[in-house]
Write a structure and sequence with these properties.
297 residues
């Protein structure tokens, strides 16, 4: 019973901190920044894929990025994403590609703001170092996406080779590839969340300190995707009626808003657990952090 009360207090305290840190407003900022950064990121992805000699990899990478999105949300953006991926562009060093990298990094900056607030830290680093770091994360994410896409493209060849040598081991390419796509995507998301929580905000946090928020983010995002997908299956026409040609953008924005709120609460949950362990028995909302006060000031 004591453990149940502890969990209840931590969850409630994290929610109070979420409200105190303007979690809903930060979530909307993340959602809008992510949506605005999505297409520049796809441009970077296409440029990199062309630089490595295979633009088809960009299409595979985009499919992986949308793999765990609700089908209705992914379908709403599929035509626009296809247009971006199939547009012929120059070398990666063109001015347009450089600007695309810069604008794509805005999504990373939005996540940094959210986590700095959640962990109650003041960012002492200069803005240009932060921007360079965000650009580095963006490029690493693009290259990693292409590598994952390459594994998917290479998958059928690997499975066919395995069937010839150990036929009892591989029964169906389609089944293995289906689970491989989801497995690779979920693994990449988990690793990305660990990197974001551990290194993006100022300071360092131990592995075990950030696990609860990451687990919550993964599980809650999955549930949110399923529920939102079911909702769209029944009421998607309402968006078309209300927003007309902007329906696909609004659908994606609403979905990203829910995911962003879950992400921000995951950071607040980690902070609440860390604070409860530092001062056992003291409710989080009853003892606001000095660092949180400094951040607001």
């Amino acid at each position: 019973m004591r453990q149940v009360r502890y969990v209840y207090h931590v969850v409630v305290d994290a929610f109070y901190a979420f409200l105190a840190d303007d979690g809903w407003a930060i979530a909307s900022h993340i959602a809008l920044s992510t949506l605005m950064a999505l297409f520049p990121f796809l441009i970077v992805l296409t440029s990199l894929a062309g630089f490595f000699g295979s633009k088809e990899l960009a299409d595979q990478a985009a499919q992986l990025l949308l793999e765990i999105w609700p089908q209705q949300v992914a379908d709403a953006l599929s035509s626009e994403i296809h247009d971006v991926l199939t547009t012929t562009r120059g070398d990666i060093l063109t001015v347009g590609a450089v600007l695309a990298v810069y604008f794509a990094s805005n999504g990373v900056e939005a996540l940094r703001v959210a986590l700095n607030r959640a962990y109650s830290v003041v960012e002492p680093r200069a803005w240009y170092w932060l921007r360079l770091e965000s650009i580095g994360y963006t490029l690493v994410a693009a290259v990693t996406s292409l590598l994952m896409a390459f594994l998917i493209v290479l998958g059928p060849l690997i499975l066919e080779t395995a069937r010839r040598h150990i036929p009892f081991f591989v029964e169906s390419n389609e089944g293995v590839l289906f689970f491989a796509r989801y497995g690779i995507t979920i693994t990449a998301m988990t690793v990305a969340l660990f990197v974001l929580h551990a290194w993006l905000p100022w300071g360092r946090r131990r592995f075990l300190q950030i696990v609860p928020g990451i687990v919550f983010t993964m599980v809650a995002s999955l549930i949110s995707g399923i529920v939102f997908g079911q909702y769209l299956a029944r009421f998607a026409s309402n968006y078309v009626t209300m927003y007309a040609g902007l329906a696909s953008v609004i659908i994606a924005l609403v979905f990203l808003y829910f995911i962003a709120a879950i992400f921000v609460y995951g950071g607040e949950l980690n902070a609440a657990i860390m604070k409860s362990q530092a001062k056992p028995g003291l409710p989080h909302h009853a003892a606001p952090s000095p660092n949180r006060a400094e951040t607001r000031a």
